[in-house]
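Reviewers of the previous submission asked for a worked example of the structure-prediction workflow described in the proposal, so we include one complete record here. The input consisted solely of the amino acid sequence. No template or homolog information was supplied to the procedure at any stage.
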Amino acid sequence: MKRFYLTAAVAAAALVLPALPALAQTAEITIGITTTTTGPGAALGIPERNALEFVPKEIGGVPLKVIVLDDGGDPTTATTNARRFVTESKADVIMGSAVTPPTIAVSNVANEAGIPHFGLSPFPITPERMKWSVAMPQPIPIMGKVLYEHMKAHNVKTVGYIGYSDSYGDLWFNDFKAQGVPMGLALADEERFARPDTSVTGQVLKLVAANPDAILVGASGTAAALPQTELRERGYQGLIYQTHGAASMDFIRIAGKAAEGVLMASGPVMDPEDQPDSALTKKPGMALNSAYEAKYGPNSRSQFAGHSYDAFDILKRVIPVALKTAKPGTPEFREAIRQALLSEREIAASQGVYNFTEKDRYGLDDRSRILLTVKDGKYTLAK
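From that input alone, the workflow returned the following structure tokens.
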């Protein structure tokens, strides 16, 4: 599969997607995107960047100027990138990042500057980040519920947890306590590891010794395969559940045989073929996967590609509304986009149907989730 990597050294040389020529800067809509195409989170960020090849070059008759920078998964770099979008690029919209900690950093900058922000990874949208930020991935509670319901249906009573020692790991651990425990699931053990870690042997040995009925892994990207592999190698025979942060073909590639039988929450873009024709997510999911796999090969589809692709599907709905009252490059245009995000309903995309409100900045419901397992090295719907 052909991959694109932006290193820190060349990050300043932003990728600018082609726009219609011979128009003044004020007649362009500038979109700044910081994502993670190097480092431990690259398995998430690279598909997000690749999907930009299949998004529109103009919306409402106005060309898009799309600037992409790599943040390497580092919140400090993501902050620098976001500030560049504000001060140098005069961005109308900011997107990013692929990993939770830098997404929080980008959200902080966007909300300080008053620029619409699309988070491309799950992140806590606190009151100070609520006005200008929305999130493209599914919220943890929606994805967590389908996992806990499966646990209950399969007589799971005790659960071990191993997750990142950062905000993503916290989001999932807190959700398990908020939803799973009231459903009758008992926590047997909690372990954490850092994203760059290359071994989780100590943590896994403690989990195996606790011998829970199931283990929930709160990790993302290729690093999610580390505890999966170690647990099976250490003889754990119980059910292993992974979050939607792990839903990629790279997970299967790295985990190998250890991936067999995993239960994984996912967005519907990973299997639009099995959706009913009435599902609003089917058509955009098929469109993205057809284009993506035609270029990057069979089974290269990615949930993370859906996050950036869907953001542009949303912009296709809201930008024409905003253009009726304001011009690009102005605070009035950014405010008009923000207002349109709240007024447009049932925005169909590959990962869900979005209905943003002042209080719900994820805007998704149960139509945004499916449950997968791995059988014979391929994802299939779980039962």
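The chain has two domains: 8-138+289-366, 140-266. We consider this example representative of the routine output the project will generate in years two and three.
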